[in-house]
């Protein structure tokens, strides 16, 4: 048996096209153009690549993009003042502060300064709390993209055994909350977990967000399981995920490739969240 490949690139393209059409309708019917502000501090090359692709996707969707590039030694006060101005700017519906921030800046303080209704990354404590308590939230883009891939493949997730490997605020924790909200039975594993292979072998759904190349072995996978590989690891052999793809593919029912799986969905979900933010602030129906 060979697993089906979950084509995140194609699904993300569909989603972006749908969003583009909704943006065009919002502009022509209501004269509203959703706007996304991206703040990049310092010159981390990976962050610069992410910001560039976010800016391109924003423009392609017909949204307005505002880019703020600040030097690595920007004082925290300056950054907080910028976030304050973006909070007050009616042309800005979404604010994204690219992480990581330089070490002299208190990342939590800056993120929590973002107005919750403009928090398109879903990282503020208010949106994390809303998600955890089943209230309407801005949901972090990477787990939201993973959920869409899972729903597209499996339909209902009710009663399925899901294992999330990783408990970061960006991926693992919100992923577990989303799976729980979708009625899966959820286990969250981390670096102190015992018997990870055994936990994995009973999972119908595995979401790997560890940050270690090919960490999840093929013989950990339950036959027919759906495997979502969030990992992006740069190795001598190029970009690889957190799952040993070639081995897992022989056992799983479906698996995301790296690249071309979760990554493209993350950016499409950022656009989706920006559109949602624009709709909510203008009291228009929620986009689907
Ligand atoms: P973090 O480093 O913040 O978290 C990694 C998690 O993995 C931690 O919870 C850690 O546990 C856990 N972990 C580490 N070692 C083990 C182990 N041996 N066994 C079980 N669990 C372990 O990473 P992120 O969540 O930010 O990112 C995870 C991966 O996803 C990275 O490769 C990143 O590049 C990628 N990523 C991809 C995105 C995309 O768009 N595709 C977006 C964001 C991230 P503990 O908490 O105990 O330390």
Automatic annotation (TrEMBL):
InterPro entries documented for this protein: Aminoacid_DH-like_N_sf, NAD(P)-bd_dom_sf, THF_DH/CycHdrlase, THF_DH/CycHdrlase_cat_dom, THF_DH/CycHdrlase_CS, THF_DH/CycHdrlase_NAD-bd_dom
Ranges where the Tetrahydrofolate dehydrogenase/cyclohydrolase catalytic domain occurs: 6-121
Known pathway: One-carbon metabolism; tetrahydrofolate interconversion
EC number of the protein: 1.5.1.5, 3.5.4.9
Residues annotated as binding NADP(+): 166-168, 232
One function term, GO molecular function aspect: methylenetetrahydrofolate dehydrogenase (NADP+) activity
Keyword list, A-Z: Amino-acid biosynthesis, Histidine biosynthesis, Hydrolase, Methionine biosynthesis, Multifunctional enzyme, NADP, One-carbon metabolism, Oxidoreductase, Purine biosynthesis
UniProt GO BP: L-histidine biosynthetic process; methionine biosynthetic process; purine nucleotide biosynthetic process; tetrahydrofolate interconversion
Residue ranges occupied by any Tetrahydrofolate dehydrogenase/cyclohydrolase NAD(P)-binding domain in the UniProt entry: 140-280
Any one cellular-component term (Gene Ontology): cytosol
The keyword Ion transport belongs to this UniProt entry's keyword annotation: no
Assigned protein family: Belongs to the tetrahydrofolate dehydrogenase/cyclohydrolase family.
Subunit: Homodimer.
Free-text function comment from the UniProt entry: Catalyzes the oxidation of 5,10-methylenetetrahydrofolate to 5,10-methenyltetrahydrofolate and then the hydrolysis of 5,10-methenyltetrahydrofolate to 10-formyltetrahydrofolate.
Listed name of the protein: Bifunctional protein FolD
